[in-house]
Write a structure and sequence with these properties.
Elements: E1 5-7, E2 9-11, E3 18-20, E4 26-27, E5 36-39, E6 43-44, E7 54-60, E8 77-85, E9 96-105, E10 113-118, E11 123-132, E12 134-135, E13 137-141
Antiparallel strand pairs: 1-13, 2-3, 4-12, 5-11, 6-11, 7-10, 7-13, 8-9, 8-11
Length: about 140
């Protein structure tokens, strides 16, 4: 099976529409106090195809404006971690954090972050904790 590149999709509870964070953004939901925790839809991991177990992810926290200026401070504050499971039909308790993919954005780190990780995981998803602002994109490759 050739390598596959995907963009994670998020189901935002406050909006019944499926939002692609490639085309729009994941934002701190209006009216939410404190952190909002969002999970992406699950995507096939390398283990789904009995692959080599190599995965990579890139987090893209751009400024909220559409005029992307990489020198501009990003207003996204929160954390992103990839979760994985070996279960073919996972329940909520089957997911584990891949701690090497954890990145916390505090407003001082405004550039894309890239992580590699290995494991013959059947399913992969992203867990995003949004404290403030906008996350533009998460890219996933296996």
């Amino acid at each position: 099976m050739p390598r596959s590149s995907k963009v994670f999709y998020f189901n935002v509870d406050t909006d019944s529409n499926r939002n692609s964070i490639n085309a729009s953004t994941v934002k701190h939901p209006v009216g939410t106090v404190g952190s909002a925790i969002l999970f992406s839809n699950k995507e096939e991991g390398s283990g789904y195809y009995n692959g080599d177990g190599f995965h990579s992810v890139t987090y893209v926290p751009w400024p909220e404006t559409d005029n992307i200026n990489y020198g501009e401070n990003n207003n996204f504050r929160g954390s992103i971690v990839i979760q994985a499971t070996l279960a073919e039909e996972p329940n909520e308790g089957d997911w584990v954090d891949i701690t090497s993919t954890l990145t916390t954005f505090d407003g001082t780190n405004n550039f894309n972050t890239f992580h590699n990780f290995s494991g013959n995981f059947v399913w992969i998803r992203a867990k995003v904790t949004v404290n403030q602002g906008v996350l533009r994109q998460i890219l996933f490759n296996h």
